[in-house]
Amino acid sequence: MLAGAGLSLGTTPDLFASESSSSKAGSYDLVAVRGGEPEVMLDKALEALGGMQKFVKKGQKVVVKPNIGWDKSPEFAATTNPALVKRIIEHVYKAGAKEVIVFDFTCDNPKKCYENSGIKKAVEEAGGVLVSGNNEADYKPVSVPKGIKLKEAKEHKQILDADVVINVPVLKSHQGSTVTISMKNLMGIIWDRGYWHRNDLHQCIADFATYRKPTLNIVDAYRVMMKNGPKGVSVSDVKLMKSLIVSTDIVAADAAATKLFGLEPRDIDHIRIAHEMGVGNMNLDKLNIARLTV
Prior knowledge:
There is one protein chain. The chain is an alpha/beta fold. It has a single domain (13-293), classed as Rossmann fold, CATH 3.40.50. Helix content is 31%, strand content 22%. It contains eleven helices and twelve strands. The strands form two sheets. Strands 1, 2, 3, 4, 7, 8, 9, 10, 11 and 12 form a ten-stranded mixed sheet that branches. It has a two-stranded antiparallel ribbon with strand order 5-6. Helix 3 (82-94) links the parallel strand 2 (61-66) and strand 3. Helix 3 (82-94) runs parallel beside helix 5 (119-126). The protein is globular and about 45 Å long. The relative contact order is 0.21.
């Protein structure tokens, strides 16, 4: 149990206010779970979606992309919860994957980010392979045909070689994009992200999402950095929400997570733009959602 001033349980009234849709396992567009530890919430979410075997087949290569961008320990909520990352890898191997690769293009020193986030240990314990995301030689040019401001990028070769990509952001505040969730987390798989910041960040985030659509998006909202993101200053920036969102629709995942944060999806420019570009659906009332409590 982590101690620390400023940690409190979030009530998340908007996302969990409605009753769950009555559907059989595997038919949901999105699953939102609250009230448990990351591993337990993931187990329940995957069960509602029909299991990890619905997304991962025997012999496939899988890339798991958490946020490991900062040299911060888990209680600061600057990086994805390591317990969640470990459990995802376990589920992926159980589904029959031959290899699980984990990486991020870090902002702080990569060795310290990997170790102090707890993700290096989690990956090793689960049998995954942690690789570097900080070598330019590992990035290959790709085209973004539907992009408005972003027409091309350099994407990590592990993503290009993967059969399945599982995107695992941590929900938190961000000074440039208000919040950083699933779409923003994909900036950790491209090299030339400085261009995005100089050329309409929100449009570039949405543009790239037209090209790269992860197989599954798993949003870590166990601890949520409510201010001073993306790196954070103190544990007093963090709210303990004990929540998890899972969807194949990257826009829907971000819309639901934005609700958890206490904001409206339409007020986050890259979510609205991606919705308008047809990447996914931010209108949660149009989706078949399982709302679960542990």
